[in-house]
Amino acid sequence: MPATESSRQQAYESPPRSSSLARRMGRRLSTFFRPKLHHKRMSRREATYWKEALRALYLSAYGLTMHPLESDASIVPPKTVIEVVQGRGKDDPTTFFASGYRETLRYHTLLRAHGFDVTRMRRMLDLGVGTGRVLVHFLPFAIERHGCDVAPEAYAWTSRTLGAYATLHQTSLRPELPFADDFFDLIIATSVFTHMPYAAQPAWIRELRRVLAPGGCVLATVQDFAKLPCEARERGWHETGAERGIHMRTFLSESKVVEVWGASFGTMDVRAYPRGQAFLLAVNDGNGHLAG
Ligand SMILES: C[S@@+](CC[C@H](N)C(=O)[O-])C[C@H]1O[C@@H](n2cnc3c(N)ncnc32)[C@H](O)[C@@H]1O
Question: How far is the CA of 18 from the centre of ligand 1 (A)?
Answer without folding.
Answer: 34
